[in-house]
Amino acid sequence: MPDTLEDLQARLSALETRIEQEWEARRAAMHYRIERGRVIFEDNVRAAHRRARVRLWAFLRRTNLLVVLTAPVIYAGIVPFVLLDLFVSSYQAICFPVYRIQKVRPRDHIVFDRQYLAYLNALQKFNCLYCAYGNGVIS
């Protein structure tokens, strides 16, 4: 039995090494690296992203009217998201220490990173912030 467990651990370690090598190869092929948890694109990729950006007014001109009309309903979701976030944060601060439960770190669930993509216009970046917050709170 111990031999089997040691063998499985060795195989797992080898697989983890291969997975990391594959990720490195894909990062190189996509011309980016990760520093302190952030994706850093090479200059030529960032330049291509900026060229691909659709300017805000052009984006709005070709947006479907029904999409514009549903936007207030979508953005109204910020109220329940903030209330839920405040409740959960208060709940953890008050109750978790009593029961010696480790608190959940919001940064493990609410990740603001997509607004750094150079091909997004201002509205798209705002939508990414809103979506990241809403999905993170629900998570």
Offer a concise description of the structure:
With 139 residues, the protein is mainly α. The chain has helices at residues 2-30, 43-52, 56-61, 65-75, 78-99, 122-138; strands spanning 32-35, 38-41. It is built from six helices and two strands.
Would you list the SSEs in sequence order as H and E? HEEHHHHH
Strand order of the largest sheet: 1-2
Radius of gyration: 22 Å
Major sheet characteristics: 2 strands, antiparallel
Distance between the termini: 39 Å
Q: State the total count of DSSP E strands.
A: 2
Helix content: 55-70%
- Give the overall shape, derived from the CA principal axes: flat
> Stretches where pLDDT falls below 50 for ≥5 residues?
none
The averaged pLDDT comes out at 91
Report on this model:
The protein is built from six helices and two strands, in the order H-E-E-H-H-H-H-H. It is mainly alpha-helical. It has a two-stranded antiparallel ribbon. Strand 1 (32-35) and strand 2 form a beta hairpin. Helix 5 runs parallel beside helix 6. The radius of gyration is 22 Å and the shape is flat. It starts with a helix and ends with a helix. The model has no long low-confidence stretch (mean pLDDT 91).
